[in-house]
Design brief:
single chain, Isopropylmalate Dehydrogenase, 2 domains, 10-stranded mixed β-sheet, two-stranded antiparallel ribbon, 12 helices, binds nicotinamide-adenine-dinucleotide
Length: about 350
């Protein structure tokens, strides 16, 4: 039986995960798959209970499972803790512990939401971008790191590190995905000032020799940030190091209306962790107003990428599209003339469409 490790996490994590699990159970019954679930606590709640944001048992469960499904971690309650035990370390520990080096973040516009973007209709209509973000290297993991005493004050250090194999394997993922789309990859770096990303550009260019049917361009990250709002439709697949991809994919999410709409997959082959790209949203946690669509679409990505069921993934996407067409909106994507619904109501509407 396919096994899913569930880590609902903190803040709105449990609220949106509950809706996504309900959707998955409907798909499960329809396709008679027989999914089994195991709880794998991580994040702030896990720290409170076990004294660590990633108990070793949770990592073991995640390793044994076919896929991991995560809500979100973190919140103000844990902000004063040492970095080594902050909730976000739990998430990073899962990513590195499972060697999930390839983060796939699609930013696709659902037609009824074209008015929800802060950008003009003609710039965002039909947007369909995939950010392929390297996930287990870069400044998040590089050493030395930390804050130390320095000349009567303090000095903070983080280190950007990439090796040739790390760059090559993520470049291959981007080129393979581009082959199935419009055969265009834009690789993002800061090769004009950061040696580490000069290496990035060199290795991406070398790897491209095996993918001559795909068009490769390079762009500095500051220009990419500007181009994403100036003319987002020029992009199809964006290949990025960890830090730049973190920032650019949040920016891309706003093109589509709300950060509450974007799913993600973090992969190493078929093994994957699936999660909405948003955080634990402490400002709206417990109010029942979070948008569960990013989480529900993440279940769709899981069905497709780990379990090979593209049909079910499209059914979920289509159900979301129909609910939006009918004018139902959570608060983050609400506009005048549409019907505002809660987190659970949105989940129920999507399930009704699926059925
Ligand atoms: P956030 O994504 O949690 O929230 C940013 C803004 O978007 C907030 O105004 C929030 O209300 C809104 N928002 C986010 N998701 C939404 C949804 N589904 N529906 C409606 N509105 C939504 O980012 P933040 O405020 O920078 O971070 C809050 C906490 O989450 C921090 O502790 C941070 O470290 C953590 N975080 C966790 C993850 C993760 O678990 N993958 C990712 C990012 C941030």
């Amino acid at each position: 039986m396919p096994l899913i490790a569930l880590c609902a996490g903190d803040g709105i994590g449990p609220e949106v995960t509950a809706e996504a699990v309900k959707v998955l159970k409907v798909v499960d019954a329809k396709y008679k798959i027989g999914f089994e679930f195991v709880e794998a606590p991580a994040g702030g709640g896990a720290y409170d209970k076990f004294g660590t944001p990633l108990p070793p048992e949770s990592l073991e469960k995640a390793k044994k499972a076919d896929a991991v499904f995560l809500g979100a971690v973190g919140g103000p309650k844990w902000e004063g803790l040492d970095y080594s035990v902050r909730p976000e370390r739990g998430l990073l520990g899962l990513r590195s512990g499972l060697d999930l080096f390839a983060n796939i973040r699609p930013a696709k516009m659902f037609a009824p939401l074209v008015g929800a973007s802060t950008l003009k209709r003609e710039y965002v209509e039909g947007i369909d971008i995939i950010v392929i973000r390297e996930l287990t290297g870069d400044i998040y993991f590089g050493k030395p790191r930390g804050v130390e005493k320095y000349e009567g004050g303090k000095r903070g250090v983080n280190t950007m590190v990439y090796t040739t194999p790390e760059i090559e394997r993520i470049a291959r993922v981007a080129f393979e995905i581009a082959r199935k789309r419009s055969k265009k990859v834009c690789s993002v770096d800061k090769a004009n000032v950061l040696e580490c990303t000069e290496l990035w550009r060199e290795v991406v260019t070398q790897t491209h020799e095996d993918y001559q049917d795909v068009q490769l361009s390079h762009m500095y990250v500051d220009n990419a940030a500007m181009q994403l709002v100036r003319n987002p439709k020029q992009f199809d697949v964006m290949l990025t190091p960890n830090l730049f991809g973190d920032i650019l994919s949040d920016e891309a999410s706003m093109l589509t209306g709300s950060i509450g709409m974007l799913p993600s997959a973090s992969l190493n082959g078929k093994k994957g962790m699936y999660e909405p790209i948003h955080g634990s949203a402490p400002d709206i946690a417990g109010k029942g107003i979070a948008n569960p669509i990013a989480s529900i679409l993440s279940m769709g990505m899981m069905l497709e990428l780990t379990f090979g069921n593209s049909k079910a993934a499209r059914e979920i996407e289509n159900a979301v599209g129909r609910v939006l067409e009918k004018g139902f909106r959570t608060a983050d994507i609400y506009s005048e003339g549409t019907a505002k619904v809660t987190t659970t109501q949105m989940g129920e509407l999507i399930i009704k469409e699926l059925a």
